[in-house]
Amino acid sequence: MKTIKIIKIGGNIIDNEDALATFIKDFSTIAGPKVLVHGGGKLATKLATQMNIPVKMTEGRRITDTETLDIITMVYAGKINKNIVAQLQANQCNAIGLSGADGNTIVSEKRPVKTIDYGFVGDVKKVNTVVLNILLSNNVTPVFCAITHNENGQLLNTNADTIASELAIGLSSIFNTELYYCFEKNGVLESVEDDDSVIENINTESYKALKDNHIIFEGMLPKLDNCFHAINQNVQKVCIGKSDMLFNTNNKHTTITK
Amino acid sequence: MKTIKIIKIGGNIIDNEDALATFIKDFSTIAGPKVLVHGGGKLATKLATQMNIPVKMTEGRRITDTETLDIITMVYAGKINKNIVAQLQANQCNAIGLSGADGNTIVSEKRPVKTIDYGFVGDVKKVNTVVLNILLSNNVTPVFCAITHNENGQLLNTNADTIASELAIGLSSIFNTELYYCFEKNGVLESVEDDDSVIENINTESYKALKDNHIIFEGMLPKLDNCFHAINQNVQKVCIGKSDMLFNTNNKHTTITK
Lengths: 258, 258
Known about the structure:
cytoplasm (chains A, B); Carbamate kinase; acetylglutamate kinase activity (chains A, B); globular; Asp/Glu/Uridylate_kinase (chains A, B); homodimer; eight-stranded mixed beta sheet; ATP-binding (chains A, B); alpha/beta; 8 helices; two-stranded antiparallel ribbon; Acetylglutamate kinase (chains A, B)
């Protein structure tokens, strides 16, 4: 089986024009099949402010109502996705921008209402690899925004980290799959303030201890849960760190193992 | 060679939720390879107003500046394109939404500045059929918004009628190509006020006479120029009318011939 790299980038790259241009140039040089997944950064919030659409919160959680879903679709699938694709093309990477609706690649269901109704937020149910495999076999690089659909015509806002892990799991039936979460830090840190305090390896056992000792908390928990979900479902390699880890093997980062 | 239908829809369908739902349902039943091209309708202007971004005009012509290009990219490639794709998927049509940057399908160049600088407006230079053919051979239906790129990272606002004719011409090397322009009238009319006064056939000779007699004028001229451009470059069939012409052969419409 060929090896594929699924690479997720977040706001620290998306929101910085120079960082994005550098990343895209480097990403284009990666040999072999690859998939890019991008988050939304701060642009959606900026657009909502410009349009005078308030951020909707319920019990401290952000809600995706119809207007917010429209904004997300415009910013993620429109502005960010198409500009990334155009820049990849300029770097001779034959990219194609996708939401989960395109090619029916990622099917999700609206998150069930328990105490909170999150609105148009989707939990991934299924990744269809048919169209993805056709594209990848023809050296076309899929670029995913964080939007999926429910097969009944409804688009759904979906966590970009989850999209990356589910794509990696789905593609593991036809590729050796490597999943890279790029963010603003060098990896999972012992001490949040010290970017050199990278924990280079986390396994199921040490993860439990790191949680119990409150060294890993808050926003890192869902990211790491996505990592362990992937590594426990046939993904061969899962790494977290700065995007430099992809291009410089000496760059410290965190590797997740079973 | 197989026959492919390239179908362009405009604002009268895009701006009307029920009309769009009906069209999508009908479009999904069309057998064989097909491509949908959609215009933008009124949503871009609405968003610009909401964002307090004025429409830029020079010498009476609309200009696509950076802010306007962003709006167009968000509305056309984001909101409209992804919602159409999701609805097509709900009707078992395996659609994939594309700009000309995606798969490097449509390359354009920024319109040269003569008396007017139109801004980020692209004139189509080339249609690349490689990725399109891969998708179409696998029963995937491309859905194009009216945005192209220049292969140097720049997205460009491009006339949707032109995109449809250039796609039809480009695809004519691998398919028998039929091009359908759907709009709010039954076809090219003898009298603008009378929707029954359809001119059922226009050829190069009668087109000249219709122009000379000012029966065809203004907005219809670029549309018809696109039609003749297509029919003179290997497109087998070019029709203009209400979208009903696709589904009901008794429906009057205009056919363009050499």
